[in-house]
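Q: Start with the shorter request: fold the first protein.
A: Done. Sequence, then structure:
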Amino acid sequence: MNESSTDLTWLRGKSVLVTGARVSGLAVVRPLVDLGAVVTVTDSDRGALDGASSIGAAVALQDDLLGNPAALAAFSLVVTSPGFRPDSPVLAAAAEQRIPVWGDVELSWHVDRAELYGPRTRWLVVTGTNGKTTTTSMLASILEAAAIESVACGNIGLPIADALRRTPHPSVLAVELSSFQLFWAPSVHPAAGVVLNIAEDHLDWHAGMDGYVHAKARALSGDVAVVGLDDERAASLAAGSPAVDVVGFRLGEPASGELGVRSGVLVDNAFGENVELLAAEDVEPSGPSGILDALAAAALARSIGVQADAVRTGLQSYRVGPHRAAVVRELGGVTFIDDSKATNPHAARSSILAHERVVWIAGGLLKGAVIDDLVVEIADRLVAAVVLGRDGMQIAQALARHAPDVPVVRLPSGDDAGVTHGAEDADAVMRAVVAHAAGRAAPGDTVLLAPAAASLDMFVDYGHRGRSFAESVQRLDATDIGSLRS
């Protein structure tokens, strides 16, 4: 069996198992079929398998496969969706039988190297705990301004396998990769990759911080490695990168080999000598996080020769997507902001520190992250807090320890806190949360949904959580503002 990056002919006639029948899993079925493989898709949800049948794959319930070791032994390769942990039953069983396991990104890399759908593309990879989607979107805007045939893909929504099949065929991919995707993609060596920052997140999945950091570091294994110098963990990865060129970016003035800010202007001192890109005040979203994301996107684009004027045009035309510090409404002098995408403490920190007086809406699944350091840092900005979700009590307890003067409401209260039974229940809780938050706010305050936690305990996803917040805000009238202040 030849598993080289440029020869996938060994897959012809081989049986391949795809784990996961949702977007990532279904996206790899087509290239596997085009390579001549015999594809079976497995999932624990019988309903999810209907989509696989419609695109030419056989299907099997996961429990049925696990109950039949001989059936599993027939597969020459397993391609997994990124959410599956190595110790998940089907992958553990495959490893026990020494069946190779690739992630969907790994397969896409091999498909690209084999030129199945066209000439090889250049991958510009973006990872980090926070800011991935904003940076990837900024990069895509820059590439468009440079008239480069490109597409944003990966964790941002469009599977890489689908991006490779696009017509016209892209020459560059702006690839957002999560730690899960990087874990399952050891062969990926991009033209350039950036690690924006690293904070506690997904520690349960990676069995601790070391595993999480190691996965993120895989983005720096290509020709050019870019690291956020203002983040201690990200900056520390520079020394271990095998890249030919290692570049940093910072909010301060850039030294040689860095991008940074000088006299209010973003400057490239790595791929040129003090090349001015654009004024910091022209970056959206405003504030330190937005500027850092813009510098990272600029570094990746400049690494492949994009000119400064295209960087400037691309960043000036970029607009923030939904649920990323988006202003929902101003009512009675209070600004309501949806940052539902702030799914960990590090992201919430940046969001909260952008405002002077905050009524904080927080809670959900902390995924093993510790909240105390965040609360200590933001305590003097908090007017009040309303917490919800499964780990809301942990946030409430941290507030009691480190910000005892801040009023805290937990919803729902009592034994049912953090337990919901569907979208209607979650939306009802959010309406109550928003009503309490508005009641605690005064003119000049910001009611901020920056949960510091994942959404899946209550909501379909962070988008659902953000929409629920926005819809609840639209129900308010001016008499709701400050109604609960003593």
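Q: Next, the second protein, separately.
A: Sequence, then structure:
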Amino acid sequence: MMTCQLVNDLSHAREESHFIAPPSSRHLPDTALIQEMREQKGMSDTRFGCAPFARLTLLPEVLWYDNLTGELINALRPLLASPVSESIVIDVTTIDDTVLVQLLRFLFNQAHRLSDLQLKKSDENAIRIRHISVLCQPDQEDRLKPIVNQQRAIANGMIAARRLADLPSDLCTPQFVVEDAQRLCAAFPALRCEVLDEKAIVEQGLGLLNAVGKGAHCPPRLMAIHYDGVDEGPVRCYVGKGITFDTGGLWLKEGAGMYTMKYDMCGAANVLGLMLAAAELQLPVRIMGVLALAENAIGPKAMQPGTVARACNGMTVEINNTDAEGRLVLADAMAWASQRHPQARFIIDMATLTGAVVKALGYELSGLMTQDEPLRQALTEAGKRCGDEVWSLPLDARLRKQTDSAIADLCNTPTNNAAISASAAWLLHHFCPASIPWAHLDISGTALWREQGRSVASGRPVPLLIEHLLADMA
């Protein structure tokens, strides 16, 4: 449990804390050591002569205003990887607003570590950050209190998503995700869960989800999480790809490409995190989150290249590549969501869908594809405000030939291997009625945080979606 308080004076902070500030901080003592540290061009750090603090770190002024590259967070990561104190004090009196929300989210996210999964021996006596003191001016408190509360709830949602995604796939099966989500949602009376098992999936005509999941020993699931923050009003729908492990099916991936495929369910995990954050914030809205859960495996019943499957909206899809399974489960889940709520305010889907989006945008930007301009603008602006940014890729009828099939209504991958990310979105748009605004987020680059050759779940785009939701309610 991580606690947080706003303080106006260092005397109110806990002793033996780690004090982090810009060199211009007015709260620093006027000593020869501090003057020498202020004159350093880069980071200056000491554990000596800084009483009553256990450690004092000054980070260059420019980092506190850099709302683009996240360099303040990058500087803090190694500092907090092995903290010297359970408490930190951080001076935010002059920080940029976008950097502030990123900083708070990062600090609250320190409540989760991979060692918490208890899959590796770890030092039980290792120091953990358990308390944050946010140093601010008295006239900043009223503005900062809701920001702190929002970022704490967002971080809690991110942690739930990260923990689930980081679990090995032999543990994190479709049924495990369902049970874990039910356990987490039980803490919030406004959340209720609905689950379709493999039999109900077939009965309700979700032929694409069934095609992907039927080859695995662990059967598929469709889970809907309903949040009723108010009794009436439009429902906002979110759909997440939840491929708990992706071998590629009969279109088998190579070993190196398969290693991180337990993370192919990050879209679904982040939908869960979003729902938990919304419930913690007690937002006055109605939301439905849909998790399309399956394992894309090889087995006697595995879908074959050339299979034609029918979605719950009646459209057929020729599966010419079994490793393009994510768009299939998303398509069925989107169609199912639109049937449940034909007057939905919007549908936003998210998925670790294509490696092509990483080649196009890298690891910092999520790909955004939509034909609804107001939704595009709102998501783009929300991303800029919270530092969880998106970048638009084209989506129009010029992509039609990429999904043409001679035998079915659509094929799931372009035969010319071009415009992979946008072509996937073009397929998906057929499964959301034109009357409902829809956007697709390809989070293949952003769903993971990468450092020193290792990948762990990041919890993105939960911050983007909560920021967008807050603005959409206004």
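Q: Describe the second briefly.
A: The longest strand covers residues 235-246. The longest helix spans residues 141-166.
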